[in-house]
Specification:
The structure holds 2 protein chains of 2 kinds. Chain A contains 4 helices and 4 strands; from the N terminus they run E-E-H-E-E-H-H-H. By secondary structure, chain A is of the alpha+beta class. The radius of gyration of chain A is 17 Å and the shape is globular. The N and C termini of chain A lie close together (10 Å). Chain B has a single domain, classed as MetI-like fold. In chain B, 16% of the residues are buried. The chains are: A alpha+beta, B mainly alpha. At the A-B interface, loops of A face helix 2, helix 3 and helix 8 of B.
Chain lengths: 162, 146
C-alpha cells in the first residue's frame, strides 16, 4: 500500500472537459470513495491514476514518486473496470492468473496456483475457477454471488499483492 | 508474368480491403477496457494484440478468410485480363466449353459443380467457428453489460 497524491489534474477529450483541476490526497491505508452523477469524471480520474489515459495537465504521485509517463503496469496499481474487462475466451483461473503470468511480473507457476486458489477459496468461488467467463452468472441471480464480479475483483486483488 | 505467383499477388491486393473492412467491425466490438486491463496486467502493446485481441476476433478472421477465398476462387475478370495461356483458374478454363460451333452445356455444368466443391467443403469444415462467431456478440452483451 502507498499514498496517492493528485494535483491539478486536467483531462479534456477534444472540446469536452473530462475533469478540470482535480486535487486530492489519499494517505496510506486510507479508503476513498468517489461519488458523482454520470459524466462527472469519476472513471476519467481512475483511468488517469491507472495510466490508461494520459492527462493534459497535473501530476500524480504514487508512494511519493511521480508516475508521469509510466506505463500502467509499472505503477503497481490494479483496477476493476466497469465492464469487468475479463477475457471471455479463457477460464476464471486463467483470468486471475493472467497478470501474474505476464512478462512483467513472471511469478513461478507453483506460486501462481497457490495464490490464485488461495484467493478463490477465501471468496468461496473455488468451485468456479475452471469455468469460462461466458458461463458465469452476471450477478442477476440473487442466490449465488456474482461470479463475474468476484472474478474481476479477485483478479485485481491477485495482482496488487506485489 | 504469366505465373500463378503474380496472380496471387493481384488477388491479395484486391481482397485486402474486403478483409480489413470485415475485421474492423470485429475489432470495434472489443471493449477498449479489455485492452486497458491487459496493459495494466503487465503486457506490452503487441502482446495485448496477440494474446487478447486476436483470440477474440478469431471468428471474424475465419469468416473473413472464407469470404475472401470464395471471392478469389469465383473471380473471373482478373484472371481473364491478367492471366496468360499458362495461368488459368477454373472459372477461365471453363470458358473452353463454349466453342464457336456448339456449347457443351453438360461439360460446363459438371465443371462448375466440381469447381464449387472446395468452397463447400471448406465452409463445412469451418462451420463450427462461423456459428460461434454469430453467438459471440449475444454472449458478450449478456455478461458485460451491467
Amino acid at each position: 500500500m502507498a499514498s496517492v497524491e493528485v494535483e491539478g489534474l486536467t483531462k479534456t477529450y477534444g472540446k469536452r472537459r473530462g475533469i478540470e483541476d482535480v486535487s486530492f490526497t489519499v494517505h496510506d491505508k486510507e479508503f476513498l470513495a468517489v461519488f458523482g452523477p454520470a459524466g462527472a469524471g469519476k472513471t476519467t480520474t481512475l483511468n488517469l491514476i491507472a495510466g490508461t489515459v494520459t492527462p493534459n495537465h497535473g501530476a500524480i504521485r504514487i508512494g511519493g514518486k511521480s508516475v508521469d509517463g509510466q506505463e500502467p503496469a509499472d505503477r503497481n496499481v490494479a483496477m476493476v473496470f466497469e465492464s469487468y474487462a475479463l477475457y471471455p475466451q479463457i477460464s476464471v483461473y486463467e483470468n486471475m492468473a493472467f497478470p501474474l503470468k505476464s512478462p512483467k511480473f513472471k511469478v513461478p507457476e507453483s506460486e501462481v496456483k497457490e495464490r490464485v486458489m488461495g484467493v478463490a477459496k477465501m471468496m468461496k468461488i473455488d468451485h468456479l475457477v475452471d469455468r469460462k467467463i461466458q458461463a458465469l452468472s452476471n450477478g442477476q441471480s440473487s442466490e449465488q454471488p456474482s461470479g463475474a464480479h468476484s472474478c474481476g475483483i479477485l483478479k485485481s486483488f491477485c495482482s496488487t499483492s506485489h | 508474368m504469366d505465373t500463378y505467383l503474380g496472380l496471387i499477388w493481384v488477388y491479395q491486393l484486391i481482397s485486402l480491403p474486403l478483409l480489413i473492412w470485415i475485421l474492423r467491425g470485429f475489432f470495434e466490438d472489443i471493449s477498449p477496457d479489455i485492452e486497458s486491463a491487459a496493459q495494466l496486467d503487465g503486457y506490452s502493446w503487441w502482446r495485448v494484440f496477440f494474446k487478447v485481441s486476436l483470440p477474440l476476433v478469431r471468428p471474424g478472421l475465419v469468416a473473413a478468410s472464407l469470404l475472401c477465398f470464395i471471392f478469389c476462387w469465383n473471380s473471373f475478370t482478373f484472371t481473364l485480363l491478367l492471366g496468360g495461356g499458362h495461368t488459368q483458374t477454373s472459372t477461365v478454363a471453363m470458358n473452353k466449353f463454349l466453342a464457336s460451333d456448339t456449347v457443351h452445356y453438360g461439360w460446363a455444368a459438371a465443371a462448375a459443380l466440381i469447381s464449387a466443391l472446395p468452397e463447400v467443403i471448406l465452409a463445412l469444415l469451418i462451420q463450427k467457428h462461423l456459428v460461434r462467431g454469430l453467438s459471440f456478440g449475444a454472449v458478450k452483451a449478456n455478461v458485460w453489460q451491467v
